[in-house]
Design brief:
By secondary structure, this protein is of the alpha/beta class. 35% of the residues lie in helices and 14% in strands. The strands form three sheets. The chain has a six-stranded parallel beta sheet with strand order 7-6-8-9-10-11. The mean pLDDT is 95.
């Protein structure tokens, strides 16, 4: 593969995609769902996100020798086909783990305010303790929550007793899912949360899914919510995207269009990781960096009164208002069914710039060690208020 004539097809929603991969060759951009085999006939590399199914049907009789996905998930990639045909591959592990962690924090704080419970009195079950689950665990601990971890592959690999069987998580108040989608192997995750699992949950249990839609049986979940067998669900991912089940959407307490990992920082991390992987594949030294291109954060600083009502919720919602994303997706219910896919994809394509918490400095109106520790644990930079000299 000669880089001076390299043709690279890039999903148009990848930030700085043309800038980064244009250093290596000629870039063609296209919507992720519109990328076709005809488009790839003379392409050398393909760079996608999660909505493009990369398999034999897409790549057969093309010149593609490298595929990169600027996501942590890989279930949309037929890696066996790539390996069989000596096609290089890279994903972006961990690129948006912090973004998803912040999404979960925003959801948990909203749930706490809505239902009137204290997070430090709640037990959180975390299914999948990879890059994302580990990040969520750290943030949940910063919120004072008790956590129970479930990750059978890690349990097998490490023998660490901190990884508990799934049935123990069914006793938790809240369960959050961060597993990849797999249909085969020792521990398939497809419909991991099915009618039987839902039947064993506590009546006040809450399910959060920001992994892949089919990790949860959406039909069974809709029934469990409609019959009030469980308290609530927060869904960022859906079976049959981009056309989520409207009845399930109406039953959820928070519904968003697969954007938990859509912080601008997370997406740019994905671009950088796959760009560097392609450079390595080509034997090139990376030349491009996004560091000088990032826009200023919309909320560079905040002043928070530790004595105010729900100061943590105030800080988090000022930087990331999860209910704005919820309202945008619920707009899908106001358009004809045949427009649902366009509405869902449009929200993702036109998603506003969302910067992660570390870009915001929080000034406390008075010193508060506990609040400082909590905000720092969530990722904020914190400045203490002036000391009381009285």
């Amino acid at each position: 593969m000669t880089t001076n004539t390299l043709k690279i097809v890039v999903d148009e929603n990848i930030p700085y995609g043309e800038d980064a991969f244009g250093v290596l060759g000629h870039v063609i951009t296209a919507p992720g769902r519109a990328i076709s085999r005809e488009m790839l006939t003379d392409a050398d590399a393909l760079i996608v996100r999660s909505i493009t199914q990369v398999n034999e049907a897409l790549l057969r009789d093309t010149k593609v020798r490298f595929v990169g996905t600027c996501t942590i998930g890989e279930d949309h990639i037929d890696k066996a086909y790539l390996a069989k045909n000596a096609i290089g591959f890279s994903s972006a592990p961990g690129c948006n783990a912090n973004s998803v962690g912040e999404y979960i924090v925003a959801a948990l704080l909203h749930l706490s305010d809505r239902y009137g419970f204290r997070l430090e009195e709640m037990c959180l079950g975390i299914v999948g303790v990879g890059n994302v689950g580990t990040n969520v665990h750290a943030k949940a601990q910063a919120l004072g929550m008790t956590c129970v971890l479930n990750d059978p592959p890690l349990a097998d690999a490490t023998g660490d007793p901190m990884y508990r069987p799934l049935h123990e998580l069914l006793e938790c108040d809240i369960i959050t899912l961060h597993t990849p989608l797999t249909r085969r192997g020792k521990y398939p995750s497809w419909h991991l949360v099915d009618k039987e699992v839902l039947r064993w949950l506590k009546p006040h249990a809450i399910i959060l899914n920001s992994s892949r839609g089919s990790v949860v049986d959406n039909v069974a979940l809709e029934e469990a919510l409609r019959t009030e067998h469980i308290r609530a669900a927060v869904l960022d991912v859906w079976e049959h995207e981009p056309t989520p089940n409207p009845r399930l959407l109406e039953e959820t307490v928070i519904a968003t269009p697969h954007i938990a990992g859509y912080s601008f920082d997370g997406k740019v991390n994905g671009t950088r990781q796959v760009y560097e992987a392609l450079c390595q594949f080509l034997g090139r030294t990376p030349e491009w960096s996004p560091d000088d291109l990032l826009p200023p954060p919309p909320v560079p600083s905040l002043t928070i009164n530790p004595d105010a009502t729900a100061p943590l919720s105030g800080a988090v919602s000022a930087v990331y208002d999860i209910m704005s994303d919820d309202a945008d997706l619920r707009g899908i219910l106001d358009v004809p069914r045949e427009q649902h896919a366009a509405h869902f994809d449009g929200l993702r394509k036109n998603y506003p710039v969302r910067r992660e918490f570390y870009n915001t400095v929080v000034q406390l109106t008075r010193p508060d060690a506990i609040m400082t520790e909590t905000l720092s644990g969530l990722g904020f930079s914190v400045c203490q208020g002036p000391e009381n000299n009285a």
